[in-house]
């Protein structure tokens, strides 16, 4: 067993490197670790943003367990996450398979589909708001009127809220997933396909037994980042569905999600302690789901 | 990824503003009385409105050369969060304006000055009693006073009503009749609501017009009354029987796209001719149809107050009082006229006199305001408002009956009042 390197020697050797890391570490600790620790503490208090926080133990979490609006936000978010991640991943893969070539037509199509990912999300949401504008002026209703239909109250029909949110999410995110999948497809050696073809494997079998398994790391990444992003959906609800100061989740809370609810509680109802508790519940949900996802990915690899 | 980043930043913002709070409150040291002072006034609204209040600030500067007041715009969308961040860090503006209940909420948490200590309650005599009541805290503190008023009226297309040979409806009975006749005359969109659509503000008018109220005078929830039921049934019928749309179209857009009558806020009045030139000469205004208990219209507006962390509390309070003077209101109105802003001063005697509107329009606003009522100022109302709105929505969308929804709304109000 080697004797430990003395601190002085270690400092001499790595001191400059540590010193160069310090600014980042200071910012990381000051703007991430410390606020995180604080929010954990605040989740056990009745902090209102102005007065000193009063410690109330697990009261916020108990209230959350009984809060029907939170349950509603949680179930809405669950439905939204499943639909947007599944559809988003499938469409990303579909687009990548369709436009993975190196020719100009493919490059142009990839650029077109990737464009929403480089556009400001606020601008995108304002655009969607126009699409679903309730009068004949809105693009959605203009198209409906071409086919002789009656104007649809897109944002005031509770049953349409989640499908609209999923549509916006999938449309905005599939280009990003497509780029990742295109990179993944490019990394699969051609020899595998040649060998498979020689053995008489059909295109479907090649896809099923070569492409899909070798894309698994990309799929895990796309699904995990998709999950995290979907759980934290905010602008779509806040910009498109908020119809008044008291109506953060749209009609009958049909579009209420966890983060907009957190924002509503923290910033319009002065319940920052309660909002912190919601943030930690959200963190736990995402953490557990990501772990499950990674574990499933690993288990499948071992099969 | 960007979505993730944006959501993370939201959470971080929540966490940070929480973390940056001071551990206790101390009395802010006050600046010397006659020393030169620069005050900051965060005005919630648009840049044009900021410019109108800046005129009053400039006038104040002429009278008090030592005092400069800089008015800054806070957009409605993020004003509340910015004011909360300022109150949390106990730094920022000396004067703030925003929604009618904001100063009450910030005041309850120690971030606002009780203007009674600086003669602010003297303004009560000049203000509209109903609006004044809604600015006063349940314990009587005056953390904010009305800065302006907003109300709603029935805007209508004169050409479409003429075509159907219909007069603007004046009563609950006349409204559905007018809708039916407009429909019979081929008008596809006879009636819609902009401000208050599917929200408690929309129900507010009918509730008071039927003789009901959200709370009794001693702040007991009073939605389980025959009047409240009658009002909700009438309102719901407008949607379900008479085809009022659940989707909200902005008032001037609604008129422009062929809606014959629309209930909308005063703020669209000045912009219709300018933004929709096609409508020039084809629209007019009337007060909302009166109910069995008479005409009542919702009155909102903005409140203005002084922050407790200001170093110039007395000067700031003096400026707030100055805003009620004839000359300040005239300065704001003149600038509002130039900028086409539908400004209604907080003094009822100034609504017609020197108004930014045409005399006919000003008369309509004046009569709406004369019989107006403001949002309930009872404890727990702010926490209950969104739940009450959901209950009302559930009846409109056919998911609950009138009585059950009102009983549930009253229960939420009861619970939050404790």
From TrEMBL, chain A:
Entry's localization field: Cell membrane
Bilayer-crossing regions: 18-37, 79-99, 111-131, 151-171, 218-241, 272-294
Any GO BP annotation: transmembrane transport
Membrane topology: Multi-pass membrane protein
Cellular component GO terms, alphabetical: plasma membrane
Chain segments annotated as coiled-coil in the UniProt record: none
Sorted UniProt keywords: Cell membrane, Membrane, Transmembrane, Transmembrane helix, Transport
Family matches, as PROSITE patterns: ABC_TM1
Pfam families with a match to the protein in the record: BPD_transp_1 (PF00528)
UniProt keyword Signal, yes or no: no
SUPFAM superfamilies found in the cross-reference section: MetI-like
Domain spans labelled ABC transmembrane type-1: 74-293
Family: Belongs to the binding-protein-dependent transport system permease family.
Entry protein name: Sugar ABC transporter permease
Species of the source: Nonomuraea deserti
The organism's taxonomic lineage, starting at the top: Bacteria, Bacillati, Actinomycetota, Actinomycetes, Streptosporangiales
TrEMBL record, chain B:
Keyword annotations of the record: Signal
Transmembrane regions: none
Signal peptide: 1-21
UniProt name for this protein: Extracellular solute-binding protein
Database matches in Pfam families: SBP_bac_1 (PF01547)
PROSITE patterns: PROKAR_LIPOPROTEIN
